Amino acid sequence: KNEVEQSPQNLTAQEGEFITINCSYSVGISALHWLQQHPGGGIVSLFMLSSGKKKHGRLIATINIQEKHSSLHITASHPRDSAVYICAVTGNQFYFGTGTSLTVIP
Amino acid sequence: DTGVSQDPRHKITKRGQNVTFRCDPISEHNRLYWYRQTLGQGPEFLTYFQNEAQLEKSRLLSDRFSAERPKGSFSTLEIQRTEQGDSAMYLCASSLGLAGGSEQYFGPGTRLTVT
Questions:
Q1: B interface mutation test: which of A37, A94, A95, A101 has the most B CBs within 10 A?
Q2: What is the pLDDT of residues B22-66, one digit of tens each?
Q3: Do A98 and B41 touch (CB under 8 A)?
Q4: A93–B56: do the CB atoms touch at under 8 Å?
Q5: How many CB atoms lie within 10 A of CB A42?
Q6: What is the mean pLDDT for each group of 10 consecutive residues in chain A (106 residues)?
């Protein structure tokens, strides 16, 4: 069993749609990270959360510590949002989800 | 460009050879992390440093792997007697060492192919 589970694994959306990616974890954490990885590209950190909610532009990340669950939302999705989104948690150890591959179609 | 650099970007080596990768973090970051990522999978933690001290090592890091950060700045990851299963992208990241965690900045990675 993976310590970090993401859903869905793959997601295709039409441009403009509201997108949600979910992350559940089973270990104690000090922080949860949402990362973005473009094909052939490096990894960019989008958010680091330990509680509540954060917003950057069209991206919103929330975390519920009691339920050990986080969501990443993308409003008004755009083809340039197409990438793999990875959830990672840090605490005593470091664990990554396997990623959600998002494709936004024009 | 996140400010974290890795060298080389690509390495092809024959099984049994030793390889060494270098990571230069953002200068004011005292934490440095090494991860490995295989195709279609998320990254896996290998090890991390707080300044020059190696504080955590994954069980994935066999005796053939060694990492150093001698002066608390750049770091090297060496793989001895490479095996085909070592083929992967090796990622480095750095962060400030803040209590409760801090954002990690990732390098572009070194892609290793063992033939």
A1: A94
A2: 999 999 999 999 999 998 888 999 999 999 999 888 887 889 999
A3: yes
A4: yes
A5: 19
A6: 91 97 94 91 90 96 96 97 95 87 96
